[in-house]
Give the backbone structure.
Amino acid sequence: MSKILICVPSMDMVAAGFAQSLAMLQKGGNETAIMFQVGSLIYEARNKLAKQAITMGAEWTMWFDSDMIFQPDTMTRLLAHNAPMVSGAYFRRSPPYHLVAFDECDTANRKWTDLKLPEETVKCGGVGFGCVLVKTDVLFDVAAKFGTWFEPMNGFGEDLSFCWRARECGYDILLDPTVTCGHIGHITVTESFYKAYSEGNKHED
């Protein structure tokens, strides 16, 4: 039986939609714990959660941001890939509502290439950590090679900094577009909203 730590970095409060999603989340037959880490510096909160996962002997970490909504079977579907690192699909919560996943990283120019929403599971260069399952082996290897997990580097955010390090350790990062989440802002950005918005922009061109 796998041990999983659900990791939630957050500020003082979480969205009601997130709380409901977390309460409904299917945990299957796994031994699952949930840990919130409150802090104003997101990378420090993520580092503390990663350390806690290793300390408790978790085999997997399931990362959710506290402004996400997701389906009850999200975690079980990501686990079914049995991949070291696999993300669900979600979109920025403000215009232009891009997919929070990237193709490749140009480290010289400190730029990530945007990834279009695929129709099936694909390898990608990096993902946000709003909804991503990471095997703890990845945490061990990243820490051993770089001495940190989420410390920002090259002007990247903490999540893409981790992705770059994981790729450097030889790990593939998968994106499953069938596992979709809503991103709570002034409106909740879902896949259907993103598609309608994108189609509208095409008509304006």
